[in-house]
Amino acid sequence: MHGLPLSPQKLELYSYHKWLGVTVLLLFLPRLLVRLARPSPALLPAPQWQLKLAGITHTLLYLLIALVPLSGWLMSSAKGFPVVYLGIMPLPDLVGKDKEFGNLLKEAHEALSTGLALLVILHLGAAVKHHLIDKDGTLHRMWLGHTKNVHAPKAS
After folding, report:
1. Distance (Å, rounded) from C-alpha 20 to C-alpha 23?
2. Does residue 138 contact residue 44 with C-beta atoms inside 8 Å?
3. Which residues of 58-70 are buried (b: 16+ CB within 10 A; e: fewer)?
4. Contact 37/129 with Cβ under 8 angstroms?
5. How far apart are CA 74 and CA 112, in angstroms?
6. DSSP calls for 82-96
7. Which terminus of the chain has fewer CB atoms gathered within 10 Å of its CB, N or C?
């Protein structure tokens, strides 16, 4: 979007981008409440480093899923661009207009977004590894929290 010349199409793409961010934030809130009310299933046996990495990755995913849309909203507010959800509901500015702060928030939004994308790739890779190599049922357990018919990895 950044490289496009100013046009109605560019403004429309930014609107869609903001709608998607607000939607992610709105869907994240009930997900967080469910996670707080119902803990994750017990982890399957794995090397300690994998268990620690999984815990760190999940915590960072939750943080970034909230911080990426919030940083974008803050950036839009600081740059003086309103966020109008679905083109009909104007959302309040979270901060006053401040060009320098807006530029700082733009950098933060981009860095957080990149971090989130990398963590999603790591998470997907780990899920595929557990499914295809370990064959330990982790991917099945991730799907809507199923725990039935899950087998531990076969001993060699």
Report:
1. 5
2. yes
3. eebbeebbbbbbb
4. no
5. 13
6. --EETTTEEPPPSS-
7. C
The pair of structure tokens assigned to 16 is 């869609």
Which residues make beta-bridge pairs with 90?
Answer: 84
Residue 149's pLDDT is what?
47
Residue ranges covered by each domain of the chain = 8-142
Could you give the CA distance from residue 103 to residue 105 in angstroms, rounded to a whole number?
A: 5
CA-based end-to-end distance of the chain: 51
Each residue's pLDDT tens digit, 29-43? 999 999 899 888 787
| Contact predicate 69/25, CB 8 Å | yes
Q: What CA–CA distances, in Å, run from 27 to 23, 33, 45, 59, 147?
A: 6, 10, 31, 17, 24
Strand partners, 89: 85
Whether the CB-CB separation of 96 and 115 falls below 8 Å is answered with no
Distance CA 139, CA 128 (A): 7
Helix residue spans in the chain (DSSP H): 8-37, 48-79, 99-129, 138-142
CA dihedral (12, 14, 20, 25) positive or negative: negative
**Rounded to whole angstroms, how far apart are CA atoms 1 and 81?**
15
